[in-house]
């Protein structure tokens, strides 16, 4: 593939090289690596705080002791290992999944406002869960996990199939329109099922808001394989997304198989969004705002955007989860609610920026 695909800043509207004009590629790479290291350290700090902070604050030394010397008779061990550790690990993997999925979605659709809703992932997962609850009587997160994953996958496949109809194939505009239409139809079905089943309505209220609480290691181990596979695939799509960012005609001229690229992106999105949504619920805004944060730091190269998003997204998700634990004692706000308060102003700012019409 041509070198112009690897460095698309000159060909993407609004793209920047991610460094000062005239700086050498080696110096820019050092700066980006240093920034990535800082972001990784920040993520580690937030993860430690997630183990410390809550209704009961635990000192760092006690956290380490609980992790290394687990004792069922020790209250700190029970809080850290049995409650906060699975919550933190699930926040890490779900954050990685949603951050990478949002980045791939925006690169695939060339839509700066793309998030898991654009391919019907949230609504597909929600419909599968509400049907599992209402029809099959499934109520536990580990029980309806695979229903949510299957619903997300089927909804994404339906959106892609509808948008692929016609001579032009799955263009960014057709993807967005098909996603909106399928989401509206699935949303109507969800409402219809909830109106006929009080049990599904009560269970869905907790799942739909998005939460890291109440999920144990069982949920984590179930989604970890698909999340890992999706993350590896997404991180390998950087060069291909750089080609799509130049336009389909230019990408084809550079020898890229656009149809294959879109199919790979779709598989990555289904694996990442389906797993994360099934595990923690349809958390909004994370996959929308994190790629823009990464893009402002590194420029238009999707290889770096993907890498930064994989670190920034879990850090933001865990930070919002920590904030939700302390703002309303003795209870807590679910992370989906806190993230909505954080993400909504960013979303409004993105809509008002006229130059972000396309990526």
From TrEMBL:
Pfam families named among the record's database cross-references: FecCD (PF01032)
Keyword Transcription regulation: no
Compartment annotation: Cell membrane
GO molecular function: transmembrane transporter activity
Transmembrane annotation, as ranges: 32-53, 88-105, 117-138, 144-163, 175-193, 267-293, 305-327, 333-351
One GO cellular component term: plasma membrane
Topology versus the membrane: Multi-pass membrane protein
Keywords: Cell membrane, Membrane, Transmembrane, Transmembrane helix, Transport
Domain of life of the source: Bacteria
GO biological process, alphabetically ordered: siderophore-iron import into cell
PANTHER family recorded: FE(3+) DICITRATE TRANSPORT SYSTEM PERMEASE PROTEIN FECC-RELATED, FERRIC ENTEROBACTIN TRANSPORT SYSTEM PERMEASE PROTEIN
Family according to the record: Belongs to the binding-protein-dependent transport system permease family. FecCD subfamily.
Protein name per its UniProtKB record: Iron complex transport system permease protein
Top-level taxonomy: Bacteria, Bacillati, Actinomycetota, Actinomycetes, Micrococcales
């Amino acid at each position: 593939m041509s070198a112009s695909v690897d460095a698309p800043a000159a060909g993407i509207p609004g793209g920047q090289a991610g460094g000062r004009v005239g700086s050498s590629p080696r110096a820019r790479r050092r700066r980006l690596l240093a920034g990535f290291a800082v972001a990784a350290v920040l993520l580690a700090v937030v993860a430690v705080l997630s183990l410390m902070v809550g209704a009961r604050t635990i000192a760092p030394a006690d956290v380490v002791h609980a992790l290394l010397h687990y004792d069922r008779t020790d209250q700190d061990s029970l809080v850290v290992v049995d409650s906060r550790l699975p919550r933190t690990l699930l926040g890490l993997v779900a954050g990685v999944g949603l951050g990478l999925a949002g980045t791939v979605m925006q690169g695939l659709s060339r839509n700066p406002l793309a998030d898991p809703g654009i391919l019907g992932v949230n609504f597909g997962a929600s419909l599968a869960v509400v049907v599992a609850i209402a029809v099959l009587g499934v109520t536990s997160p580990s029980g309806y996990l695979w229903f949510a994953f299957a619903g997300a996958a089927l909804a994404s496949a339906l959106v892609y199939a509808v948008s692929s109809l016609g001579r032009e194939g799955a263009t960014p505009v057709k993807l967005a329109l098909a996603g909106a239409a399928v989401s509206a139809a699935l949303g109507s079905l969800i409402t219809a099922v909830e109106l006929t089943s009080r049990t599904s309505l009560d269970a869905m209220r907790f799942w739909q808001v998005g939460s890291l609480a109440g999920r144990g290691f069982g949920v984590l181990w179930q989604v970890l394989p698909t999340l890992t596979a999706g993350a590896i695939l997404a991180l390998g799509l950087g060069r291909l997304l750089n080609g799509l960012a130049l336009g389909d005609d230019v990408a084809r001229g550079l020898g890229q198989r656009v149809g294959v690229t879109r199919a790979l992106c779709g598989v990555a999105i289904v694996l990442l969004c389906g797993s994360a949504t099934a595990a923690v619920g349809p958390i909004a805004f994370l996959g929308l705002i994190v790629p823009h944060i990464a893009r402002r730091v590194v420029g238009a190269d999707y290889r770096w955007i993907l890498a930064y998003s994989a670190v920034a997204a879990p850090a933001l998700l865990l930070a919002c989860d920590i904030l939700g634990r302390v703002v309303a004692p003795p209870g807590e706000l679910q992370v989906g609610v806190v993230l909505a308060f954080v993400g909504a102003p960013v979303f409004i700012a993105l809509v008002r920026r006229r130059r972000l019409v396309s990526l």
